[in-house]
Design brief:
The complex is a heterodimer of chains A (about 325) and B (about 425). Chain A has about 325 residues and is an all-alpha fold. In chain A, about 65% of the residues lie in helices and about 0% in strands. Chain B has about 425 residues and is of the alpha/beta class. The radius of gyration of chain B is 24 Å and the shape is globular. The chains are: A mainly alpha (about 325), B alpha/beta (about 425). At the A-B interface, helix 1, helix 11 and helix 12 of A face helix 1, helix 3, helix 4 and helix 16 of B.
């Protein structure tokens, strides 16, 4: 950020400490509808999910009629301890590892490809509009549909195996190949997103800086690492943060492309979905979601604090 | 210093997106116990069913509506995917909504819906149960009470390449040994054709194929008392048939990715000598518009078993009455109408869905139109229903887990069954 000229914003001065309390009350009144809505759509579901995580369905069955007992029972922290030590511990820890490895691998590849795409889209050449549109198409396809499309590509007798030499790879069977299939599909799908954001960052870099670099005798590689990359870094970090948070809750691709229940690709969200929707066990499902919630929160916090991702544009000059 | 609070806000907001999804549709309501089986209430109802691919359902409903102006039936179509259908029906039941009247349930859902009291017990005397195939009626029962009436049925068939078997002078196999012998004789002269496939992807189809293998070896997955019975030699023999066939290449590797449609395409392309499949493939594989390379070259037989004919798993759909609908009498009357011989005949003619009315399988003109009916009747009569347990979805997933790992060589059949037996014991407590 030091490379940017610290220009003070011109316009109305920010409200100082001398603001009258009446204004504050009026402001609170004016935003209260928003807060109410936020409370309903953000706070309530979170609290409700956290509460559910401490309950389990009563599984008892009447031996005479076969009817199931109704209602839920409070089980304390059982749902959480089960995750790490119980019967389901293997599945959960495996899913957590998958979630993490998907995030690290997919986002890394996406950053490299996304930046390359942005550089390409940024250059002036004939047909630039067409290239830009073409690069953005994958981003516009709904993920679930993309999952199905890639499923066809990765079928036993699909396009992927036709292009690759050697015996056909059974991509959708459980194993490392399924993990790679998901990473490939996710990269195809979301590298354009990073490309788009980085492109926006590139467009605000003034041509004069490049000119100066050229006069100083910097080659293209040097220019990229000394000028382009530092200047798009704020934008890039925000893009990466969004991607990391998004990938941590990846669901559609493993579910539609590979199918649930595969050890190599089950993520925590797939597990939570299956528990809740398929098995009707809302307690453990909520516990999974709560743990994922905390995981995502920690990652986001670390990202913002350590790497300095500037989500709000509070630092001057980043816009 | 505003930043930390903002950080907290943004982390909370993003994480909230993760949580929000899980909190939806998770009511913890306690439902009132159902009253005695007094099914009253006359008036409009809804029929909730998966996507009607047959195109005949609306005809049936229209005919009913023409005769019952004050008890109109409206069709609510759910997605084609069975999991999605079940999900919506469960959600509707959990909110105790009266929006759903008659539910079109997959045969394996009966126990779950009955135990949760989402559907009401039905008066057996009101329905012509004795005219229906007994195996199908069993699928509608839970703890000896009738909760659902079978409307359509389904059984597995062994599709085989008649041209290739005839050329080698062979009859369709009735045992697994005969099936393997036939492959050994026929395949060397037909390159590009593999021996056998079913539905082996990790999903409900694998549960079906595994159960059939165990049943066809004389075993059971879950006994009459609702407890798992997989620690038997018969169960091991059943799973071994599948595992050994994968090892020897009789089941081609890529068949481990097959659901119904992938297998159908392979059979239609002439890549399979034998194929375990539902009746719907008959019309598609027999299409003479060039889409099938095996039109006129295949026939069907009952599934083979370890020592004699095998036992299919039972498919199909049953109608049940939602516990929360107001007009239960109309719902029962509509089910009576739908299950009648007349309606079932029309449905078979228009949609080629397998009926549950036994006599229809023996009518000469219907058999002429659907040549597989005779074999299908045998298949359904010998069929064994899939485990009738409340936690069916979890049981099915555990079965898939074990069968998939054994068939991919991740564990031996013995180990897979041992751990499966343990899991099912705790799931059926």
């Amino acid at each position: 950020m030091v490379t940017l000229a610290p220009v003070e914003p011109v316009g109305p001065a920010p409200a100082g400490p001398g603001r009258r309390s009446g204004t504050g009350r009026l402001a609170a009144l004016l935003v209260s509808p928003t807060l109410l809505v936020l409370g309903l759509v953000v706070a309530y579901p979170i609290l409700s999910a956290v509460r559910l995580a401490f309950f389990q369905r009563d599984d008892g069955i009447d031996p005479e009629t076969g009817l199931r007992k109704q209602g839920d029972v409070f089980v304390g922290f059982d749902n959480f301890t089960d995750m790490f030590t119980g019967d389901t511990a293997d599945r959960f820890l495996n899913a957590l590892a998958n979630t993490t490895s998907f995030t690290v691998a997919a986002v890394s590849v996406e950053v490299v490809l996304g930046v390359l795409m942005a550089l390409l889209m940024h250059r002036a050449f004939r047909g630039r509009a067409l290239v830009r549109a073409a690069i953005l198409v994958p981003w516009a396809v709904p993920t679930a549909i993309a999952g199905l499309l890639w499923r066809w590509v990765f079928q036993a007798d699909g396009v992927a195996n036709d292009l690759l030499p050697g015996p056909p790879v059974l991509w959708t069977t459980d194993g490392a190949q399924a993990w790679f299939a998901v990473v490939i599909a996710d990269t195809w799908k979301t590298a354009p997103f990073i490309g788009l954001l980085v492109l926006a960052g590139l467009q605000v870099i003034s041509a004069e800086i490049y000119e100066a670099a050229r006069l100083d005798g910097a080659g293209p590689v040097r220019t990229f690492f000394a000028i382009t990359l530092p200047l798009v870094k704020p934008t890039l970090l925000v893009a990466v943060l969004f991607r990391v948070l998004d990938t941590l809750r990846m669901f559609d691709l493993p579910y539609t492309l590979i199918g649930p229940g595969k050890d190599a690709t089950d993520t925590v969200t797939v597990l939570a979905f299956e528990e809740a929707v398929k098995f009707g066990k809302y307690g453990p499902a909520s516990a999974y979601a709560v743990v994922l919630f905390l995981y995502v929160a920690v990652v986001a916090f670390v990202f913002v604090r350590l790497l300095g991702a500037d989500v709000f544009g509070t630092r001057k000059g980043s816009r | 210093m505003i930043l930390p609070r903002r950080i907290a806000l943004v982390t909370a907001a993003t994480a909230a997106l993760v949580l929000g999804a899980s909190a939806c549709g998770s009511g913890t309501g306690s439902q009132a116990p159902p009253g005695p089986a007094a099914l009253e209430g006359v008036g409009p109802i809804t029929l909730v069913t998966g996507k009607d691919t047959s195109g005949n359902l609306q005809n049936q409903v229209d005919e009913w509506n023409a005769a019952h102006a004050d008890q109109k039936v409206t069709v609510i179509e759910l997605p084609e995917d069975a999991d999605a259908q079940r999900q919506q029906m469960v959600q509707n039941a959990r909110t105790q909504s009266d929006a759903y009247g008659v539910l079109n349930l997959d045969v394996v859902w009966t126990a779950e819906f009955a135990a949760n009291q989402w559907v009401v017990p039905l008066p057996e005397a009101d329905f012509p149960l004795t005219e229906l195939l007994p195996a199908t009626v069993e699928t509608g029962k839970y703890f000896k009470r009738l909760y659902a009436v079978p409307i359509t049925s389904d059984g597995g068939l062994l599709y085989y390449r008649k041209d290739l078997l005839d050329a080698a002078g062979l009859k369709p196999p009735t045992t697994w040994a005969e099936l393997k012998d036939a492959c050994a004789k026929v395949l060397p002269s037909s390159p590009g054709t593999a021996c056998y496939a079913g539905q082996f992807e990790k999903y409900e189809g694998l549960t079906v194929n595994f159960s059939e293998a165990v049943n066809s070896a004389g075993g059971t997955v879950v006994g009459d008392d609702g407890r798992p019975t997989l620690n038997t030699d018969a169960a091991t023999e059943g799973l071994k048939f599948l595992v050994d066939a994968v090892k020897s290449g009789e089941i081609p590797q890529k068949a481990r990715t097959f659901k119904e449609e992938e297998g159908r395409r392979a059979f239609q392309a002439g890549e399979l000598l034998f194929h375990r499949q539902w009746p719907y493939q008959y019309a598609k594989a027999g299409a003479t518009d060039g889409s099938s390379a095996v039109a006129g070259k295949f026939a069907v037989a009952p599934l083979p078993g370890a020592k004699g004919p095998g036992a299919s798993a039972l498919g199909g759909h049953n109608y049940a009455v939602s516990a929360y609908t107001k007009n239960k009498k109309t719902a029962v009357d509509f089910i009576k109408y739908s299950v009648s011989e007349d309606q079932q005949r029309k449905n078979l003619e228009k949609s080629s869905q397998a009926p549950t009315w036994a006599a229809l399988y023996d009518e000469a003109d219907l058999v002429a139109k659907f040549p597989y009916l005779t074999v299908l009747k045998k298949s359904i009569e010998n069929a064994v229903k899939r485990p009738s347990v409340v936690k069916y979805q979890e049981v099915s997933r555990a079965i898939q887990e074990a069968a998939y790992s054994a068939m991919s060589g991740g564990s031996t059949p013995e180990d897979a069954l041992k751990s499966l037996q343990g899991k099912l014991e705790s799931l059926t407590q």
